[in-house]
Amino acid sequence: MESTLTCSTCGLLQQLAALPPGSVAECCRCGSVVGRRQVDSLERTAAFSLAALILYLPANLYPIMRMNFYGAYSESTIWDGCVSLFQNGQWLVAAIVFLASIVVPLFKLLGLFFLVVTTRLRSARWQAERTRIHQLIQAVGPWAMLDVFLLAVIVALVKLEQIATVLPGPGLLAFAAVVVLTILASTSFDPRAIWGQEEDAR
């Protein structure tokens, strides 16, 4: 079964035949990828999202930064950073950090897991709504997580290097792992499976 699509890079309208599992179709004019059929996307998405959900707790409970300032030792978690920003009157920044680093990643992972479970059960209900959930997950992806806190850690390391010892905490490693696993889970999911077009036609 062929489908007609437009290359997102050069705009060429072309016919795309049904792809075998694991194959990629390229634009005949510019060479950009115009179609892809993934293998075992549900299994990989479930594995990545479950691993990210497991690491989500230590990422938020353990400190992401440790500082020794003239003998005064302190540790900061993501939540501590949000509270500190709020107490210093930076409410907007605190809200952005809270949403981007705590709320959005959790709902994104739960949404991916929901899509995997309902698709694996071959549920025909709310297919349009589940497709919109996937589109929302893709839309909020660039706004979630790592950049804000990695930038904060780098700024602290650079600005406080002469007067204090600043070290990354164990939560930062879990935090970075959650980011990577979330990206892998999001890119592994094939939304066509929602509509019964299984990517791994067994």
Number of strands: 7
Low-pLDDT stretches are none
The assigned CATH architecture of the largest domain is: Up-down Bundle
The first-level CATH class name of the largest domain = Mainly Alpha
SS content category: alpha+beta
CATH-derived topology of the largest domain: Butyryl-CoA Dehydrogenase, subunit A, domain 3
How many H/I helices?
6
Order of helices and strands: EEEEHEEHHHHEH
**Mean pLDDT metric:** 78
The helix content is 40-55%
As for the number of domains, it is 2
* Rg from Cα: 21 Å
Distance between the termini: 18 Å
Widest sheet: strand ordering: 6-5-7
Main sheet specs: 3 strands, antiparallel
Strand content bin: 5-15%
Shape: elongated
Can you summarize this structure?
The protein is of the alpha+beta class and 202 residues long. The chain has helices at residues 41-61, 78-87, 91-120, 127-140, 146-159, 170-188, and strands at 3-6, 13-16, 24-26, 33-36, 65-69, 72-76, 165-168. The chain is built from 6 helices and 7 strands, in the order ββββαββααααβα.
